[in-house]
Amino acid sequence: MENKKTTWEVLSKINCNDKTEKKNGLTYLSWAWAWGIVKSNFPDANYKVINYDGKPFLFDEFLGYLVTTEVTINGETIPMNLPVMDGANKAMKAHPHTYKVKEYQNGKWTGKFIDKNVDAATMFDINTAIMRCLTKNLAMFGLGHYIYAGEDLPNVIESEVAKEDYTLKIANAKNEAELKAIYAEVKINKGLVALINSRYNELNNG
Predict the structure, then answer these.
(1) What is the C-alpha to C-alpha distance for residues 147 and 168, in angstroms, rounded to an integer?
(2) What is the C-alpha R_g of the chain?
């Protein structure tokens, strides 16, 4: 009898790289695509935005805003929090505020500090934070988890079954393009890369 894959096993193997964008050194995954992938694999999945006193955020005048989501997949519910932040990933508050950073000239610190401004949060900022929180929430189930872990690709080859599948794909590859596509998925596995190189030599010398 074939073992049913867990939620993590299904979602953590999905390559999300072409659905991301980089901003200020951080990688963001499209929430619409992420939720679509989850629903296509787990139709009964659902999420909700947590309200605090009837509002979709928790507010502290000194700390700023915090949003919370809860995702339920296969009967498992996991919550996630995220502060409302500006483009520089600084906490936004009800009123504009400033913070100090080192001043640099020609790559060297001048020994001085300068002020940076943070705008007051708007409903647009809060809504953006909620959807980013949802995406981060989905990562707790496996989807895009490798992005938050700072890795380039999902670990799709950790099991012996997966390795056997890729070994078969490599053996059946008919041209360089197919080998390149496989390489993009398994380049972190030296054993499979060696098989790809061997198959490449077979095709070119055959």
Answers:
(1) 28
(2) 22
Instruction: Take residue 68 and report the two structure tokens written for it.
Output: 């919370």
What is the residue-averaged pLDDT of the chain?
86
Taken in order 84, 88, 91, 96, the sign of the CA dihedral is: negative
The Cα 16–Cα 2 span in angstroms is 27
**Angle, CA 52 vertex, CA 148 and CA 70 arms, to 5°:** 40
Expressed in angstroms, the distance from the first to the final Cα of the chain is: 40
Q: What pTM was computed for the model? A: 0.71
Tell me the pLDDT tens digit for each residue of 49-70. Answer: 999 999 999 999 999 999 999 9
Q: Could you tell me how far CA 53 lies from the centroid of its own chain?
A: 30
204's tokens:
């070119």
Note the helical H segments in 30-78.
Answer: 31-41
- Amino acid in the structure at residue 194: A
Residue 83 has φ and ψ, to the nearest 5°, of -75, 155
Which pair of tokens denotes residue 168? 């078969």
- pLDDT grade, residue 97 (50/70/90)? very high
Residue 204: C-alpha distances to residues 39, 106, 129, 197, 201 (Å): 43, 51, 51, 11, 5
Instruction: Give the distance from CA 93 to its chain's centroid.
Output: 26
